[in-house]
Amino acid sequence: MTELTAQKQTTLDQIGAATTLDALEEQRVAALGKKGWVSLALKTLGSMSPDERKEVAPAIQAVRGEVAAAIDAKKGELESAALEAQLASETIDLTLPAPDMAKGSVHPVSQVMDELAEIFADLGFAVATGPEIEDDWHNFTALNMDESHPARAMHDTFYFPDAAADGGNPASSSEAVGQKRMLLRTHTSPVQIRSMKEQGAPIRIIAPGRVYRSDSDATHTPMFHQVEGLVIDRDIHLGHLKWTLETFFKAFFEREDITLRLRPSYFPFTEPSVEFDVGYANEGDRRVVGGHGDAPGHDWMELGGSGMVNRRVLEFAGVDPDEYQGFAFGLGIDRIAMLKYGMNDLRAFFDGDPRWLSHYGFSPYDQPTLSAGVGARP
Ligand code: DAH
Questions:
Q1: What's the CA gap between 185 and 165, in Å, rounded?
Q2: Structural contact between residues 196 and 203, judged by C-beta atoms closer than 8 angstroms
Q3: Which atom of ligand 1 is nearest to the CA of 270?
């Protein structure tokens, strides 16, 4: 019995001193394992007299209980210490600065193009595109501007070098030859021709995109943006044109008091042709669209050109002008973007200055929708 008590004390001391779960397990096996000293002591009970056994058995069981309890307690202690250590090593310091991620923004021109598409889609227009590297025939001839047409001179066209090598005799009134002479499109109007040739009539499209002219000052850049509109059907008239433009500008500028003025004009591809002006007021150094242009403190600002598509153009595009007619319009996207978002220098649009972009740019999450308002601010 004394031997058992001594052994128990040694074991309890070693359990107390264990610093790892492995060391503790060793103690458990040595005492309580099949060949452990407690198990061996229990086996001696079989060879004892009943009286002796009655006395010794509870003592051994008590030792066994004490050792087992000590192991359990130590095990709990070591496990929670291990957990604490793990937690301490896995902390995240939330006060550290966020990683420096690239921040992008949507250019106001792209934003306005999305707004245009959203508004016109609601009016049943599809978005059409055409190449920026265009041929002479689509850019001019098919729009009723043959080689001798004076309107061509006003376009300050960038021609490709091989066109000059052509010897100045493009004979572009023929589609096959005219298509060979390449240029950077000077307006989005050639998309009218391409769309009609592809889809025929009736048709209802807008065509936003880049256009190029050899022209550069405070209000002109060699590359700028236009949007073309085209509606061809059996009974389209100028009234439809005016309503469409008015409805568009009301949605775009998000105000009801938009007044449009149509003025007689001339374009080779429309007959009759009109230019459209919108009423505005000066507020400080900013022009604010709205109101009647003849009202006190107001004036008219030209926004674009339009008219009923010339029957010659319909013929060039393969549409029967005796069956179909319609209107077209073209306007500068950069111009209406400046008006809506209060930017006053066109050149800054294309400088790529990150300060300008972070000021005037839009969040990529700020998709224009008619339901949420097409003009959400950055
Ligand atoms: N293409 C013309 C330009 O760039 C703008 C224009 C005027 C387009 C009248 C049209 C239109 O569709 O009908 O100056």
A1: 19
A2: yes
A3: 13
